[in-house]
Specification:
With about 210 residues, this protein is mostly helical. It is built from 11 helices and no strands. About 25% of the residues are buried. The N terminus is likely disordered. The protein is about 75% helix and about 0% strand. Keywords: DNA-binding, Transcription, Transcription regulation.
């Protein structure tokens, strides 16, 4: 079990969200409300048995509004707002840190806060991803289109290279690989509260060149 964070540490993540422009905060609240209703309905009825129309009705919005926030039904499960926060935290790490060291510091801060603040939501999303084939496929697409692109940009900035640099691309995929390995270890039975430690262990292993 991970050690609970002090309240001031949890508040740091909330503060980052609170600093968003008012319009973005309103969009975030609406997106979270839709996701909450969707996860509740998936739990009650099953993922395949729940329609976008039912989610929209529960959230008191139109189906067209749903699709303004989530391009597909799968996205209501796999989408979150943490990539830009992660990027901000990464950019704030001391310049002398290597990309791996900066990533370990970033994930060491953001993951415990996420799991302590939104453990129930994250657990529901991960369990759905583990059991619904369409969600597993969409999760990979989301990683490639979202998280990979963000990681590639901030890593390239830190090392002073282009995002098209083959080494930057390869390094970024390696990072995503060890992150996914931590997730699959959880799927095999590790408590979800241990994910921050699993991620850090895997990043440290990557930093040593993955010796076997």
């Amino acid at each position: 079990m991970s050690t609970p964070l002090p309240e001031y540490a949890i508040d740091r993540l909330r503060d980052r969200l609170d600093r968003l422009p008012l319009r973005e905060r309103k969009k975030l609240r609406t997106r979270r409300a839709i996701q909450d209703h969707a996860l509740r309905l998936f739990s009650e009825r099953g993922y395949d048995e729940t329609t976008v129309e039912q989610i929209a009705a529960a959230a008191e919005i139109s189906p067209s509004t749903f699709f303004r926030y989530f391009p597909t039904k799968e996205d209501v499960v796999v989408t979150d707002e943490y990539d830009p926060i992660m990027a901000e935290m990464f950019r704030e790490q001391p310049a002398e840190l290597s990309p791996i060291e900066a990533l370990r510091a970033t994930f060491g801060e953001i993951l415990p806060q996420m799991y302590q603040d939104e453990l129930e939501t994250i657990t529901a999303r991960m369990r759905l991803t583990a059991t619904v084939p369409a969600l597993r496929a969409r999760t990979f697409e989301s990683l490639r289109e979202g998280t990979h692109a963000v990681l590639k940009e901030i890593i390239a900035e830190r090392v002073g290279r282009s995002t098209d640099d083959p080494d930057v691309k390869t390094f970024t995929w390696a990072v995503l690989g060890v992150l996914q390995a931590a997730m699959y270890e959880w799927l095999d039975g590790a408590p979800i509260e241990e994910l921050p430690a699993l991620v850090d262990r895997n990043l440290e292993f990557l930093s040593r060149g993955c010796p076997l």
